[in-house]
Amino acid sequence: MLLELHIKNFALIDAVDLDFSEGLNILTGETGAGKSILIDSINFLLGEKIGKDVIRKSCDFTFVEGVFEIKSEQLKSIMQDLGIDDDEYVVISREMTKNGKNVARINGKTVTVNMLRKISKFLIDIHGQHEHQSLLDENTHLDILDAFCGEEFHKIKMEYKKTYDELVYIDEKINELKKEEQLKLQKMDILSFQINEIASAQLKLGEDEELSKRRNILINSEKIYNTIASSYAQLYQREEGSSAYDEIAMSISQLENITKYDENILNIKNELEEIYYKLEDIISKLRNYRDKVEFNQEELNVIEERLDLINKLKRKYGNTIEEIINYYDKIVEEYSTIEKSEEILDELNKKYDKLLSEITILADKMSLKRKETAAKLSASIENELRYLGMEKAKFNVEVSQLEKIQSSGMDKVVFLFSANPGEQLRKLNKVASGGEMSRIMLAIKTVIAEIDKIPTLIFDEIDTGISGRTAQSVAEKMSVISKGHQVLCVTHLPQIASMSDRHFKIHKMVYNENTITKVTKLNIDEQVEEIARMVGGALVTELTKEHAKEMLTIAFELKNRIKAAN
Asked: Which regions form coiled coils (predicted)?
């Protein structure tokens, strides 16, 4: 249930704070006062896409916040899945700035607008004037019927949808394989060549790096040899003069002779001996390396050829050996898939036939339930239409079978209507007037409301095209619905307004040369004044006030009778 609504900088609204009650909340006001703006703000709050032009002139942002009481366990479960605390109350807010930035929050946690939409369908059902047109769209008829079919039906429908999605996927795979069949041989030739080319190379991870290193050594072998030989000679075997090795040995011998004079010299001598032995080790390594260095043209040729092959494969199949190997694995799998396509196609066809059999059974179950429910729904809507002043009207929910399986089953649902005796039942768009459409929609909403778990229903001028006794019937029906749901209703009819449990007046005023829309919760005297205006127009007289008081008295008695009956 919607407890509070806070609006800032939305269209003509500067700042509005509303608290709604259980039962029937009525919104009235003169034409152009901004009644639709209030409904638009709720739509915005619940995730509807709205342009930046709703931001009030000279303001940088618009902000709408709603406080809801939550009783639905399903909604609490969804909120838990979204990581939102499932409290008894939930605060939803949405802000939009001039640069188009949207920020939505649920209980203070930032969420996406899509999340708002997901949650909103469990909170509020808004019926606006545009829904009259939706009734003319036969695609909506099946959804309305299904909403009345019960929980067990919806379990079957979910299983059907799951099977249908799988069937569509399998069908797409079958068609893909059939198309690939035409190109299979050509594709296999290309893949076979690539597989053989890569496989014959017998690539090893990192071998290109190792080969490049070896190639570098061979190309520079003469320089390496000369440098190593020179270093060796300098350290150990000079042609003229003493080598470093000899000089260090001589220094050790000389230090040995004077250690008896100062023990610190012994430490120095020992450190020099360590250098001597280390140098001896280095000299040995240099000698061994020098003796191994040789230029091998044959080996260099082999390496060059190998690197050329690897680079050629890199240009074709990947920037690294690892990428080439990964590509190889991929095309081997692809080749295998194409090679086995006949077998795979056969398996897919078998699976398709199995799914088709399963979905046909599910579709038959859905059709049976829809036809059973259609008869009940037709009778219920006819009954409601009689209550709404259409005593002779006939309404039929026709269910016929389609030739092909659809995502919703194998049924076509069409609403047929006749307003007068002797008239043939025909499609709504052929026979129903605006006033009749309003009553048909209200009748449908009334019937579905009996099983609908959505706590809040909003009716935006559902009374279009009706007056007199019919208007009174609609008012009473609104009151009946409000005993099981919170109802917010925008109306221009005094009969409906007088049935309110809480009445709000929407009006425009000019402040500092700016037009703003205000919403006022009416007390009993203000309610009399507003209903008198609705009865008599702009001129409110004592007579219209007395009429308004009488309407409120009658409405009070009617509400008590409805309450007792429910």
From this structure: 279-306, 331-365
